[in-house]
Amino acid sequence: HSVVRNALFCLETAAAEKENHVYTKALMAYAFALAGKEEKRKALLGSLEKEAVKKDGSVHWQRPGKEPEVDLPYYRSRAPSAEVEMTAYVLLAHLTTQPAPSQEELSFASLIAKWIGSQQNPNGGFSSTQ
């Protein structure tokens, strides 16, 4: 359909820009995964991996310029909803591929899922409603 084709063209143009926000890259990676644009999906995921925060055997993304968290032995703060959302979009982009994700992608996705799981509140929900 022409509307979808035009939307994808717009996203491809935006993806070619040098400076995209990490949240924008996460959304575009998932959109390209859904559209079956494998090369664009992989390129964005490669760029996102360079910006990943790898800590305690898990992986997530945070907004640039965010103050580092203070490690307190008795308190674990939860990430803001935007960070949970963008990390979830990266996870979806890793898992939404044809054919099925490779073993390497599944291993990396499990590290992302570990972080997302750690963000659950005591009732099983998240700070985000997305």
Helix count equals: 5
Compute the number of structural domains: 1
Average pLDDT level:
87
Number of strands: 2
- Biggest sheet statistics: 2 strands, antiparallel
Residue fraction in strands = under 5%
Q: Helical amount among residues, as a percent range?
A: 55-70%
Radius of gyration: 16 Å
Q: Order of strands in the sheet with the most strands? A: 1-2
Task: State the end-to-end distance.
Answer: 28 Å
Low-confidence stretches: none
Structure description:
The chain is mainly α. It has one domain. Helix content is 56%, strand content 5%. It has helices at 2-15, 22-35, 38-51, 81-95, 103-118; strands at 53-55, 58-60. Strands 1-2 form a two-stranded antiparallel sheet.
Task: Offer a quick outline of the entry.
The protein has helices at residues 2-15, 22-35, 38-51, 81-95, 103-118; strands at residues 53-55, 58-60.
Keywords, separated by commas or semicolons:
5 helices, 5% strand, single chain, 130 residues, two-stranded antiparallel sheet, mainly alpha
